[in-house]
């Protein structure tokens, strides 16, 4: 059933599509239940169920690096069922070349009632994984 006002999709231009595909395959497909939705030489999209999907496209304008504090996208936040699942994702993350944010304040960097893991994708876009009850 369509919901009026629901987010349809988000498109993000990336510096290196191969690096982004590796990261988002790991995060979205391996851990969050997404599947590859569309794929073409300069992009890929991931969908969860039949709802909102995420698109990553190879940018041709690489002169300026992404900075989440400039005008534009600050971060993407995803639900993950259960604090144990977030902890397991963090353990998996520790074995990979991706950068965890706010390490010293895990899991309450977002406040005392907000159990979450923060990390960066290959372009330094902040990713927030929020533990939610089942």
UniProtKB/TrEMBL annotation:
The keyword Metal-binding applies. Residues 6-132 form the VOC domain. Keywords: Metal-binding. InterPro entries: Fosfomycin_Res_Enzymes, Glyas_Bleomycin-R_OHBP_Dase, Glyas_Fos-R_dOase_dom, VOC_core. It comes from the Bacteria. This is VOC domain-containing protein. It comes from Schleiferilactobacillus harbinensis.
